[in-house]
Amino acid sequence: MPFAADLALEEASESLDYPLLRIDLSRVSDRAGFLDAVGKALSFPDWYGHNWDALADCLTDMSWLAADGYVIALENADSFANAHPADFAMALSVFQDAADTWREDGVPFWTLVGATDETAPWLRDLA
User: What positions does the domain Barstar (barnase inhibitor) occupy (predicted)?
Assistant: First the structure.
């Protein structure tokens, strides 16, 4: 993320009093690595099962990190997104479903994807 945009994101998150939860995907090479990186970055509880269902359960609970809203940044997503597009699409679907669930309760839950221009068209196709 460019420095100015990164700073603006931090300031916006702080002004809303929402945690800015960064997940660095630069060293993620497979689904297991993605699930592990998310679990560690979001301090998931010990019962987290490192699978898509467990990810969904944790993302729609977040009781260990109670807040009025959440901003999650999937940073450096290019390598994982391009090497494992089906898994990355599934991950984004789980995050979208979590956002939809939180929205029903009036809680903002935003997931931002940090990727280069080469990956950006692929991400736009998901929208």
Answer: 20-112
